[in-house]
Design goal:
This protein has about 140 residues and is α+β, with helices and mostly antiparallel strands. It has one domain. A five-stranded antiparallel sheet has the order 1-3-2-4-5.
Length: about 140
C-alpha cells in the first residue's frame, strides 16, 4: 500500500506544488519506515497532485524509478541537512559517504549551498553529487 497524501498547497502564480508537512505518523512510501529524521526526508509530487513522502532521497529515487513515474513527477523536494527546511531537490547539492548515518544507509545529506555540501562530504570522507546521480545510485 502506498502512502499518498493529497497535495496541501499550490502557489497562485505558478501552480507549483508546495511540500507537505511531515507528520509523526508518516511512513516512507518506498520502504515503509517511519520518517523520523526530517533532515533526510524527501518528497515528490506528481502531476495529479499526489504527494509521496520518503525517509531519504534514495528511497525516493528507487520508488520513482521502479514505478516508471519520473515523467509524471512535477516537483521534488529534499530537506536540507543543516536547516531541515525544504529545498528543490533538483538544485540541491548532496554529500555522499558511508559515514553519513542516514536512513536505509543511503549515505546522503542535502544542502542548499554547494560549499557546505563539499565541506560536509570532505569531513565524512565522501564526495559531492547532484540530483541526477540519485537515479544511478537507485539502480
Amino acid at each position: 500500500m502506498l502512502v499518498v497524501a493529497p497535495l496541501l498547497a499550490m502557489t497562485a502564480c505558478e501552480n507549483t506544488p508546495q511540500p507537505a508537512d511531515i507528520e509523526e505518523s508518516d511512513m516512507c512510501s518506498y520502504c515503509r519506515m517511519a520518517i523520523s529524521e526530517k533532515r533526510y526526508a524527501a518528497e515528490a509530487a506528481d502531476i495529479d497532485g499526489n504527494v509521496y513522502k520518503f525517509d531519504n532521497p534514495m528511497c525516493m529515487a528507487r520508488f520513482i524509478a521502479e514505478r516508471g513515474l519520473k515523467s509524471r513527477i512535477a516537483v521534488y523536494y529534499i530537506a536540507g541537512y543543516d536547516t531541515r527546511s525544504w529545498l528543490d531537490a533538483r538544485t540541491a547539492a548532496y554529500a555522499k559517504s558511508p559515514e553519513i548515518p542516514s536512513p536505509m544507509a543511503s549515505g546522503l545529506a542535502a544542502f542548499g549551498d554547494a560549499v557546505k555540501a563539499r565541506q560536509f562530504a570532505t569531513a565524512h570522507h565522501g564526495q559531492t553529487v547532484g540530483f541526477e546521480d540519485l537515479w544511478t545510485f537507485a539502480q
